[in-house]
């Protein structure tokens, strides 16, 4: 068996690879921030539903199983940790 070098250029050799990679990283960071705010918002909305006894905020559909208050707090903490996470 012969080891043949890879005929395709690596990402480091392609012009503009760093720019496209940084664009992708920026896009993924924005998606992460939006997800963090969304998760925090859902938790806050459910917790407000428990605090002010608003059924539609607790279950989002009357007659369905409601999210518990401790789960709502966990959602809020998850959103905060996702927002402040740095990889």
Model description:
The chain has a domain at 35-84. Helices cover 64% and strands 0% of the residues. It contains 3 helices and no strands. The chain has helices spanning 17-51, 55-59, 69-84.
- The average pLDDT score comes to 86
Q: Sheet with the most strands? A: none
Question: Strand fraction band?
Answer: under 5%
The secondary structure category is mainly alpha
Q: Helix amount, in percent?
A: 55-70%
What's the overall geometry?
elongated
Q: Count helical runs.
A: 3
Number of strands: 0
Rg, rounded, reads 22 Å
| Span between termini | 40 Å
Series of H and E elements: HHH
Low-confidence stretches: none
Produce the secondary structure layout:
Blueprint (H helix, E strand, L loop, with lengths): L16 H35 L3 H5 L9 H16 L3
Properties at a glance:
87 residues, mainly alpha, 64% helix
Give a quick summary of the entry.
Helix content is 64%, strand content 0%. The chain has 3 helices and no strands.
């Amino acid at each position: 068996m012969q080891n043949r070098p890879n005929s395709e250029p690596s990402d480091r050799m392609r012009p503009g690879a760093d720019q496209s990679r940084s664009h992708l990283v920026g896009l993924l960071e924005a998606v992460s921030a939006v997800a963090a705010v969304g998760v925090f918002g859902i938790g806050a909305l459910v917790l407000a539903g428990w605090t002010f006894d608003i059924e539609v905020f607790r279950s989002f559909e009357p007659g369905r199983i409601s999210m518990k208050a401790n789960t709502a707090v966990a959602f809020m903490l998850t959103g905060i940790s996702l927002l402040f996470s740095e990889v």
